[in-house]
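[Automated response] Your request has been received and processed.

Submitted sequence:
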Amino acid sequence: MVSIKCTYTVKPNHPTPTIKLCLPEMDQYAPTTHAPTIYFYRSVANNGSALSLIETLKSSLSCTLVHYFPLAGRLHWIGGGRLELHCNGMGAEIIEAESENKIEDYGDFRPTAEIRKLVPYVDYNNDISELPLVLVQLTKFKCGGISIGMAVSHIIADGKGALGFISTWANIARGDQDKEIVEPFHDRTVCYKGDPSAKPRFDHVEFKALPTLIGCNEMEERQKETTVTMLKLTKNQVEKLQQHANEHESSEDLKREYTRYEAIAGWIWICVSKARRLQAEQLTSLKVAVDCRNRLQPSLPSGYYGNVIMLTVATAKSGELFMVSPLGLEYACGKIRQVLEMTTQDYLQSAMDFLVSQPDLTPFRCGFHTVGCTQGIYQGCPNLVVTSWFGLPIYDADFGWGKPFFMGPAALSSDGKCFIIPGDGDGSVSIAMRLQVAHMNDFEKLFYEAI
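Generated structure:
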């Protein structure tokens, strides 16, 4: 049981520009929802500060919003399924809550409905112009620990951008003046918007319907009961997967070894396809979130926090994924490598040219359907979305009471949605996954079978 004590609106503590920001197509095709994440901290003290925990969060957020003033604004529809950002200083929202639970009651922190209660609820029935772009919930547990639940607008920031904001906020909260703050870069015109008169140079499968299950109705698949899991891999298990992925590839065939992400994502793809008992001729896709910051020329400024993520699609017949080689892994990794290498500057510009030429972006927005929902682009069985958090500063949220001992997603929206979450420096990995109940047990058994 989580009880809300108080809700605060936090505005920048100094005057900020009152302007309208145009958003490029990379922002426009992001989901209109907020990304829910959760941070857990053990018994905390405020390091001698005269401020309470909630006051520390409020005062430091008001300072941070001076730097990140667009996050204190609101989105407005401008037609064609597109949005613009009004920087109006309306502020972010912080919620103070208490729970009768102890932190250990949440087990392995898999993103269940109970975890979701630790993140602010956003009522999307309200007009988007009424919704804060940043919402935060501080929950105190009876064991003395706390959680901080974050909800940051997908439209305004991708994962790297949102975590840059949170790291800056934490740095200000703990008064660490020695740590340099990377100033956010607000001008989004530096990101290629697209040329509506240009014809796309590639077949952009990421904007097309995904494969559906042979002989089954998509609407029925949407309604099937799903569940979540949190799998763990040790450093040795991760290295073993990489070894399997690279065992039969010669240096002539492979310019560089398959990465941790490619090996883990490929193995998940194989195991999920087997657990779903897909027919050999069944097409199955794996969506890969590609950070394009270093793929654009010139590269974007270091403080750019908008969306620079492209969701590309690897597709294969399930029978091809089941080929015997040491785990059948090279083929799956090769398919993933192909779409990663395909995502070049030219490919990205072509994708933006396609989007900007569309009179209405709504059908192309990469929002995920939610569990049981009959609307939104269907991405469930026989498909997967595997997002990597490798390289992201997910443990930098030290607000003055130490680093979080766990950070992860607070919700998984649909069947086949998955996050790969690195451990804090020990080489381990956690994998948060939602699958249909009928497939989960087999998936977990298959996943550990050979590693």
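Summary generated for your ticket: The chain has a mean pLDDT of 92. The longest helix spans residues 260-275.
If you did not submit this request, please reply to this message.
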